[in-house]
TrEMBL record:
Name listed for the protein in its UniProt record: TIGR00725 family protein
InterPro entries referenced in this protein's UniProt entry, alphabetically: CHP00725, Kinase-like_dom_sf, LDcluster4, LOG_family_nucleotidases
Matches recorded under NCBIfam families: TIGR00725 family protein
Species of origin: Thalassolituus hydrocarboniclasticus
Coiled coil: none
Domain of life: Bacteria
SUPFAM superfamilies per the UniProt record, alphabetical: MCP/YpsA-like, Protein kinase-like (PK-like)
Amino acid sequence: MTEPSQRLLIAVVGSASNSLPESQKQLALEVGQQVVDSGCRLICGGMGGVMMYAAQGAHQSAHYCPGDVIGVLPSYQKTEANPFIDIALPTGLGVARNAVLMAACDAVVALDGGSGTLSEIALAWQMQKPIACIGDQGWHQRLNSLTLDQRRDDTICVLDSLAELQQFLSQLHDREHRAYSGIQLSGVGRKPSESLRTLEHYLEQSFSEQCHDYTFELLGQGSEGVVFTCGPTIFKVFYRSDFTMLLFTHLSQISQRLKAAASHDYSPVPRFDVHKGEYLVVSYPRFESVPYRGGEQPCMVNFLRAMHRAGVCLSNVKAENFRTDANGNLVFIDIGRDLMPFSDVMFLSMCKRAFLTVYFSQHPAFKTMCSYTNDHEGFMPVTDHDGNDLSAEQVMNLFGGFYQEVRRGCE
């Protein structure tokens, strides 16, 4: 058991409603118990709903000790805490107490929830706290496996079961928890310290059989990591960081989904393997291909149908992340945080961005158009820029036909 002074504080956040469905009550109980079972302490907002049932679950753990359940209250009154809170911390800050809660914790587990949970997730993201979501309702279903911005290299972790929660909590014990030093602009200060030769040497040692008698060739270098080719194999080495290593569970799940769909000849994403050691590495067989420049609607429709079959979505569709293989199929090659498990909401979002990639990928306002579709139904900015003579209605009709064609192949 971890020494008392070293035990991690896990924030459990979610709906404060006092009329939760039975399934949510039971999930909150089980999550709270597992937090303490894992050797951590539980910290929450101290009130009702998910907070109360998680606190009650913590008390049910065989490892529970008095003081393991902490509540950060929005009011000045300790007496407003739910009956399972051991240590009540009144703040008098109202909803601003969410920032105190996120500052105090080491990681966050979100169970369903609404706008309050969303604010906590956003604060935890800015404060560099690992975030996991579990359940089948609420805001986090729209954020599954996403990066909220470019200030971090990991994703919001998707947990399909309590067993995956146990693995998430176990990984937290193996990482270094640095003190938060203030909000920085997206992408600022994230320069990798590894040299290319260091990464090549790691691949040589870890994949000696695959790399024997071959030399490494650099294919690309980005914010997540470096891509090499070595003989018949492509390797993507992720830069070493505490957050990136949490991608292992996420990418392993995506890899399993792609391999489960292996009965189809065409895989829209290379069927990759995931390796976790000193570095996180994905690898897949090299294939003949040429760059994709946009257009080619039938190829994109076929790609989206294949993604639907595989149960995988993308949060960032753009032409430069695709290659066209020898059979004329589109293949997404930027394996990393943009890949996520399937959901209807994310599939529709992916189709919108894919539509824009087909018709407007060379337009100077392409990024603005894609950003607009994240929060709006239509494509109004498309009609606001020079070089486009389509009305908003015409663009919507064009997308409607595109989306219907995609869906016909998914039924």
